């Protein structure tokens, strides 16, 4: 079941769902979601000598990316057809019986901004900031600023607490992330 605004507020106030910094319910709370704001850390692909990304290689994908930290009030310009990884301002912790989903905001989607390619689910037991895969599908650059309400998080209750919540799984590559981490596909065992 998806949590309503009243339950989201209640779960946060009762500290069942933890969000840092505390959300402003007046501006961030929707009828069944909580808006998350854009952080100041971005990862972009830099020019490299590699002509492709080999998914079977043990290459550390951090090596083909560079981090860009913007200062408060400074713009980040997302060019048409560009792809970057970004992080939310908020960190959140989910209990073992709640999962969350990240969706883009319609007002931004209508400008061509997408906030995730595939990674929209946060498993029960999640702890960290949400990393988003931002893309500009439009034909004009989009100027982004830290603090922009960029995505909406919905919460769903599980039928029972997860037996193996995210942080207790041995392959939890992204737990406790605080920056815009690149893909850690290279840490998986290959077929």
Can you give a write-up of this model?
The chain is mainly beta and 191 residues long. The protein has a domain at 5-47 and 70-158: Deoxyuridine triphosphatase (dUTPase) (Deoxyuridine 5'-Triphosphate Nucleotidohydrolase, Chain A, Distorted Sandwich), CATH 2.70.40.10. It is 9% helix and 36% strand. It has three helices and eleven strands; from the N terminus they run H-E-H-E-E-E-E-E-H-E-E-E-E-E. The chain has helices at 5-13, 25-28, 106-109; strands at 18-20, 34-45, 65-69, 75-78, 83-93, 98-104, 113-114, 121-122, 127-136, 142-145, 149-157. The strands form two sheets. Strands 1, 2, 3, 5, 6, 7, 8, 9 and 11 form a nine-stranded antiparallel β-sheet that branches. The longest helix has 9 residues, at 5-13. The chain starts with a helix and ends in a 34-residue tail after the last strand.
List keywords for this structure.
mainly beta, Deoxyuridine 5'-Triphosphate Nucleotidohydrolase, Chain A, nine-stranded antiparallel beta sheet, 9% helix
Question: Tell me, what is the CATH class of one domain?
Answer: Mainly Beta
Beta-strand residue percentage: 35-45%
Number of strands: 11
End-to-end Cα distance: 36 Å
Number of helices: 3
Could you state the CATH homologous superfamily of one domain? Deoxyuridine triphosphatase (dUTPase)
Q: Structural class of the secondary elements?
A: mainly beta
CATH architecture of one domain: Distorted Sandwich
Mean pLDDT: 86
* Rg estimate, integer Å: 17 Å
The largest pleated sheet is described as: 9 strands, antiparallel
Shape: globular
């Amino acid at each position: 079941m998806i949590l309503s605004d009243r339950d989201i507020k209640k779960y946060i106030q009762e500290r069942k769902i933890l969000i840092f910094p505390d959300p402003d319910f007046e501006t961030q709370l929707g009828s069944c979601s909580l808006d998350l704001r854009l952080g100041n850390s971005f990862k972009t692909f830099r020019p490299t000598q590699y002509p492709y990304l080999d998914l079977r290689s043990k290459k550390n994908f951090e090596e083909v990316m560079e981090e860009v930290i913007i200062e408060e009030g400074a713009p980040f310009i997302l060019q048409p057809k560009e792809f970057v990884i970004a992080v939310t301002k908020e960190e959140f912790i989910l209990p073992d019986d709640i999962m969350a989903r990240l969706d883009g905001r319609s007002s931004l989607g209508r400008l061509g901004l997408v906030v995730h390619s595939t990674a929209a689910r946060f498993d029960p037991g999640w702890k960290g900031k949400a990393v988003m895969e931002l893309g500009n599908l439009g034909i004009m650059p989009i100027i982004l600023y830290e603090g922009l309400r960029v995505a909406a998080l919905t919460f769903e209750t599980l039928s029972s607490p997860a037996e193996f919540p995210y942080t207790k799984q041995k392959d939890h590559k992204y737990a406790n992330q605080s920056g815009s981490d690149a893909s850690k596909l290279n840490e998986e065992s290959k077929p």
